UniProtKB/TrEMBL annotation:
InterPro entries xrefs: Inositol_monoP_metal-BS (IPR020583), Inositol_monophosphatase-like (IPR000760)
Known cofactor(s): Mg(2+)
GO biological process: inositol metabolic process; signal transduction
Positions of Mg(2+) binding: E65, D82, I84, D85, D210
Protein name per the record: Inositol monophosphatase
Keyword list, A-Z: Hydrolase, Magnesium, Metal-binding
Keyword Nucleotidyltransferase: no
PANTHER family linked: INOSITOL MONOPHOSPHATASE, INOSITOL-1-MONOPHOSPHATASE-RELATED
Superkingdom, natural source: Bacteria
PROSITE patterns in UniProt: IMP_1
A family per Pfam: Inositol_P
Length: 263
């Protein structure tokens, strides 16, 4: 079995299990604080994904949210997995959460899969082969007038009230765009830009497992992603995120609201 087929099978199985999951009160824990949660299902799902990957590809490296990295990034393929992106939504809403699996080789994208679990929508892309939501081809938005853009952010408070370096002008941007929306899952928000439902996505802190699958889907749909200052988004460190439907929209935002022009 190829890596992509394996990943799709594992993500779909993980999603089926999560749809049936029911949370006991004692199965939720705080990590760094009361806004940073983990459940037994985050852990179970990550273990399931890791085991399935390593059974077939024991030499691959895995970077995931809930357990230490296995293997090294110099290895042939590196998998970035977020077993549940949107854990708070999983707990409070039982919707608007995703299983996210991205695979890269020597710094280059191979494929990304993001499953919107409750909607059973699988966003997927292989490098060079376009991006899809189930069987529907995705195309990012071509809108370029600031006042027409819909901006998504996974964390309204941090994005606009505690701006990260390069993001000081985001409040002005928020006032100028058509509207601001928040799902609460970086992966689903980036997929919304890939599908043209959103025109921009801004996050002031995002980790490799949050965005390394969805960024492949976004780029295959014609979108672009950078750090908030316009520089490259690192593959292996947390960073700020500015995603747009087109290079022109990204450059416009950078020119008017900070950073430097994207090259
Ligand atoms: C979080 C979600 C959230 C974002 C956080 C992420 P988690 O992931 O994507 O929307 O604001 O920065 O850490 O903890 O639910 O996997
Ligand atoms: Ca996450
Ligand atoms: Ca997570």
């Amino acid at each position: 079995m190829e890596r992509f087929e394996l990943a799709e099978a594992l993500v779909r199985q993980a999603g089926a299990a999560l749809r049936q999951a029911r949370l006991e009160a004692d199965s939720v824990r705080c990590k760094s604080g009361h806004q940073d949660l983990v459940t037994v299902w985050d852990r179970k799902t990550e273990q399931f994904l890791r085991k399935g990957i390593l059974e077939h590809f024991p030499a691959d490296a895995i970077v995931g949210e809930e357990y230490p990295t296995e293997g090294t990034a110099s290895q042939e393929a590196v998998w970035y997995i977020d077993p549940i992106d949107g854990t708070t939504n999983f707990i409070n809403q039982h919707r608007n959460y995703a299983v996210s699996v991205g695979c890269w080789r020597q710094g280059k994208p191979l494929f990304g899969l993001v499953l919107d679990v409750e909607e059973d929508r699988l966003y997927h892309a292989r490098a060079g082969q376009g991006a899809w939501c189930n069987e529907r081809r995705l195309a990012a938005s071509r809108r370029r007038n600031i006042e027409e853009l819909l901006l998504f952010t996974p964390d309204v408070l941090r994005t606009f009230l505690q701006p990260a370096p390069g993001g000081e002008d985001l409040l002005r941007l928020a006032r100028d765009v058509r509207a601001v929306r928040s799902i609460g899952s970086v992966a689903l928000e980036l997929c919304a830009v890939a599908g043209g439902e959103a025109d921009l996505c801004v996050a002031t802190r995002s980790c490799p497992w949050d965005h390394n699958a969805a960024r492949i889907i976004l780029q295959e749909a014609g979108g672009v992603i950078a750090a908030l200052d316009g520089g490259p988004l690192p593959l292996n460190e947390p960073g700020t995120v500015l995603a747009a439907g087109s290079p022109e929209a990204l450059d416009l935002v950078l020119k008017r609201y900070g950073g430097h022009e994207n090259e």
